[in-house]
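User: I'm preparing a small set of examples for a lab meeting where we compare how different chains pack in three dimensions. I only have the primary sequence for this one, and I'd like the structure in C-alpha cell form so I can line it up with the others. Please keep the answer compact; I'll paste it straight into my notes.
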Amino acid sequence: MSPARAKEALASLTRPRVEGEREQEILDATLDILSEVGYDRLTMDAVATRAKASKATLYRRWSGKAQLVIDALIHDKAPIVAADTGTLRGDLLSVFCGMGGITDPQQMAILGSVITAISRDEEFAEAFRRDFIGPKKHITEGIFQRAIDRGEIRSDIDLDLITAALPGICLHRAFLLGEPPTAELVTKVIDLVILPAVTRG
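Assistant: Understood. Below is the C-alpha cell output for the 201-residue chain.
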C-alpha cells in the first residue's frame, strides 16, 4: 500500500463516528426530504445539504440512499409493542389504531412516499420489506397466534393470508380510493371481515 493510501485509510479509521444527536439530525433531514419529494427524488446530496453535513459524513455511516432511508424510517418512532388486551379484537385495535399504526397520518405519508420505489428499486424493496414491514408483520402474527393459543379463534387459519387482510383493505382504500384510514374503518374491517373469517369454519 502506498504511503498516500495508508494515510487515507488511517484517516478514515480515526474520523468520528456519526452517532447520537448528529445521527438523529441526519435521519430527521432524510424523513423531511422523503415526505417532501418522495424516495425517487431524494438524494444523498440533498440530505447532506439539509443536515449541514458532508456527503463523506453520510457515506461513513450509510452505504447509500436505501440504507439511509430505511434507517430513518426505523428510528422515527419507538418500536411498536402489541398490548395484550385479552382479545384479538382489542389487540388489533391497539396496534393498528395506535401511534405508528395504520391510522397515523405520518405513517401513511411515509408509505405513500416510498410506494413507487418498492416496485422500482430492488435493493430498497428488499430492505424495506425485511427491516420495516417485517417487524410489523411479526407483531401481527404474534397477536393471532396468541388468540389461537387461548382458543379464541380457529387453529387452522392461514396466518400469512389473514395478517395481510386488515392492512391490505385499509391501504387499498387509502391509495386507490383516496380514503385515509380511520379508527372507524379499522374497527369495521375487524368486526365484519377478520373476526368472522377466523372464528367460522
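A couple of notes for your slides: The chain has a mean pLDDT of 86. The chain has two domains: 3-67, 88-199.

User: Perfect, thanks.
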